[in-house]
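Explain this record to help learners:
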Amino acid sequence: QVQLVESGGGKVQAGGSLRLSCAPSESIFSTHIMGWYRQAPGKQRELVASIAVRSTYYADSVKGRFTISRDNAKNTVYLQMNSLKPEDTAVYYCNADPPGKLGMEYWGKGTLVTVSS
C-alpha cells in the first residue's frame, strides 16, 4: 500500500502564496499520474492539477496561478500556489492514479489551505 504524505498547508491572506508537497512512500512517478484535488466545505472534490510523465493539466480556475511540478530525486510532487484567493480555501489532497487500473488509486489524508480576504 503506497502512502502519500502531504505537507505545506496553512493560513494565508489573499494574494499570498503557499507550496504544498506530496511524498509517496515508493517511487511511482513513472507508473502513476500525480494530482492535487481539493474539496471546499459543501462542495464536491475537484481536480486542481495533475502531472504525468510528459504533460500537465490545470483546472481553469487555477491556470496562471498554480504550478504543479515533480522532483524525481526527492520523490516529491509540489503544488506552488500564487495569488491565492478566498475561494481557494479547501482541503487539498494528493492523488496517485495508475492509468487503466480502475480502483487502484491512492489518496493522501489532505492538508488544509485557508485564504482570508
In short: The CA atoms of residues 46 and 65 lie 17 Å apart. The chain is about 0% helix and 50% strand. The longest strand covers residues 90-97.
